[in-house]
Amino acid sequence: MIRVVLAEDQALVLGALAALLDLESDISIIATAANGRQALDALTRQATEAPVDILITDIEMPELGGLDLAEMVRRDFPATRVVIVTTFGRAGYLRRALEAGVRGYLLKDTPADQLAAAVRRVAGGERVIAPELALNAWDGKNPLNQRQRDILSLAGEGLSNRAIGQKLHLAEGTVRNYLSEAIGELQAENRIEAYRLARQQGWL
Amino acid sequence: MIRVVLAEDQALVLGALAALLDLESDISIIATAANGRQALDALTRQATEAPVDILITDIEMPELGGLDLAEMVRRDFPATRVVIVTTFGRAGYLRRALEAGVRGYLLKDTPADQLAAAVRRVAGGERVIAPELALNAWDGKNPLNQRQRDILSLAGEGLSNRAIGQKLHLAEGTVRNYLSEAIGELQAENRIEAYRLARQQGWL
DNA sequence: GATCAAGGGTGACATTTGTCACTACTGCCG
DNA sequence: CGGCAGTAGTGACAAATGTCACCCTTGATC
Fold first, then answer.
1. Is residue B138 scored above 60 in pLDDT?
2. Which sequence spans correspond to the domains of chain B?
């Protein structure tokens, strides 16, 4: 019997996924969580009894996201293997997930019957990556440095150069420079396009 | 037996929801669809046999979104009642949904067991609105006209005034004017903030 | 100690964006 | 018919944005 914990912030989806997996006779959902924090709690509670084999988790969740969660699980519960199930095929997310030692990475638009299959394969020691992402996982890495990322994020929220400068304690001209660099590196036409591109790639 | 068609673009979620509802003995999933177009096809196919009682649909889907779909269903399949299930609690979405004659509006973070309950109630003639939205459904309506919406959308994708003008066959100055109006109406500081605000409200 | 890269900054400049006032052409509505 | 709201456009102007060349520290690295 494969022991599974499920983390997903949308309760309806959480419940539905649990129902889906519970149909499988060799898989048992032993806990569900609405965020990363709750997932860690569940793993801790179970630690005294039988270990949890698989943690299935979304990425974008309140409190504690799936990527940070994966790193903590690797450190504190090395026997538990993490499978990410997310909407986002962003290259940067997959990269970070792999760096966090994740054993599976599926998109929410893979067919439903493949979830149970993926769980079994990961439980058996295999690594499962959504095929549409497997190829270009390691091309282009994040071309933006920390400053550029911070500034681009704020710009994408509608702040002016002046406002960004104040928030980050930088001169307005400096903000302009970093933004200009970022726009150039991403081959965008302006800050809005640059923000969109970076976000798409998971580089924020 | 309540006859249900399900539309949702994320295959995994679609499958999971289907599994969830199929556990109910009085509900039967007779078709699933990955977008609005497919949902219409399914309704058309079923029309010759018994009618479909309930169409459950997401809003943001490729090809044909849930709100447009709802309007078409009201026109072409008046016997079928529509239930929206979406991530987004945006006021504008709910408003448009209600205007389209939708009978149910649930958020994806309502507990899973309430989905079947909502289906039964809508099938019985009731109207079911997610309680956290029911109250402020009819405050503030969309202050943007069609032109302003179109232009703001394109601006939010990073297009320049010139580019927007070309796409919409308008002079650059005209684009500037509409954008300026939109920014003013939304009390934003610039196009980016205006875009964010409008999007948040479901006014796009 | 010289050199060099990174991080932060300045000033000048062209372009884009945002604001406003005012014009022109519809299509209603009284 | 006159008035008026909605849609499109123009011109002028101020402010914000984007680009570039160049300066100054500070810490490596040779």
1. no
2. 2-138, 146-201
